[in-house]
# Entry
Amino acid sequence: MSPQNNLLVRLHKWASRQDENFVTEAFAHLIQHLIEEEPQAASGLLRSITNGFLGSNIAETRSVTVRTQIITGEGTPDLALFALDKLVYLEIKVESEATERQLRRYRELLSNSSYSETRLILLTRHVVSIESPEADYSHIRWHQIADWLENERLQYTFKTVSGFLVEQFLGLLGIKGMTMSQVTWELSGGIRALRNFLNMLEESAHVAGCKVQVRGNTRWSGVMLDGGNYSIAIYFDDPDRLIFETYKRRVRVDAAKELGIGYVFETDDKQGHGWAYELDLTSEGVHFYARPRSSQMQVLELFIRESMELVKKIELPPDQNGPDGERVEEDR
# Structure
């Protein structure tokens, strides 16, 4: 299925700064649906996720309740599975890292709960190693979740809605690069196209009067503008959107909202606010991929100029004191 026909992928682009919560809620919804509509498949999935702790039989599987964002006095576990006398906490990470302190705290919460049997599971994208006997957790990865879902889908004939939901969720994991799909011949062409786009973006930024540094990592690729005050990049989980964002600069929230375009977000350190503005490369008014190179350059240059003009109207002076005036750390 094309990413453009995937509801989760389309909705995900509006989950600004809530990536982890969005994926967690989608995962929780899928588990609960399978428990109610596909209990045999749900049993197999739960056995895989919990290493046999849950899902031993259909009766136990049907008793499982899925909840997210459990508020406790010592933190907020991402996802919890309640089953009769058993309780499982899943700490879910997409890009951020888990800490020993966080896992130890959740282990203590489980130990002090009223449930006789408990488990703590860490679900991440990458390999982690937290050597702490007090944490006492199991570790699984997102590509394993995708494999287990595929296995259950192959073993059973899912109902139409169930099959659709599984396909949608696997599509979301795929677009975010959290599955281990086969690398095909498209790799070489894609790399060349990305390099050409970055060259075009760099040149357009220079023409627009910006100082430019090409940057990127496994999540995004683009350029930093004017010494890192701003960035403009493509994120690999939604490559048809070009996003301009404040980086070291912060903005006046009221002024940013009065613009009526773009959106305000809280900075990662929770000490201020930034602003982002997006260009949909596939929209009818842009048709970026159908344009000749010179016209593509014009689109990028105009977008950068417009973004810079708008942000100048709403940003705080770099030397202004107070939470919204402090500079953002350079670690993206």
In short: The chain is about 40% helix and 20% strand. The longest helix spans residues 186-207. Residues 321-332 have pLDDT under 50 and may be disordered. The longest strand covers residues 117-124.
